[in-house]
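Assemble and predict.
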Amino acid sequence: ILNVEQSPQSLHVQEGDSTNFTCSFPSSNFYALHWYRWETAKSPEALFVMTLNGDEKKKGRISATLNTKEGYSYLYIKGSQPEDSATYLCAFPGSARQLTFGSGTQLTVLP
Amino acid sequence: DAGVIQSPRHEVTEMGQEVTLRCKPISGHDYLFWYRQTMMRGLELLIYFNNNVPIDDSGMPEDRFSAKMPNASFSTLKIQPSEPRDSAVYFCASSLDRVGSTDTQYFGPGTRLTVL
């Protein structure tokens, strides 16, 4: 069983604040690291797939970094907006196709 | 493409009844996944198919659960008999067939199952 951990479990920030949270995963046999965004009453939506150590991906105000040697990834949101409120999931492939999801970080952006 | 389609969106049934959940993957995607989301366990993989063949069903909780994929555009997840602890949101997802594990999985809207 793969250990994919996310912290914090939940987070409340004010509109305009920047924030970040962490995903840790096994550093051995690394394949890729996935980030998903999951809004309430909707389905998870892919944000990033990261494969290279030191990789940084960006989509609008959201960016992610990857450290495969130490087994962690950070997700950053710059200038949080209420529409960023969601649960952010990371997922680590245990085999070529099977993703193990972390428990997620639930972000609430207060107006 | 319409994305991954699941039906029904909501299902309320009584304990002991048979429940069938349906999924239509994105056209051209060769991998199909069934997940269950609960408060206690989060998002967990139940089973996945490659080219309609079940590859790993180790996440299926018990014999009451079964899944089939008779063709590339349709899959079912069946629970018989259903129990209250099966109440959860069941997601179907699909992905392209590529070498490696960088494929994005596209999720359907989910079926919210309530077993009374």
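The two ends of chain B are 36 Å apart (CA to CA).
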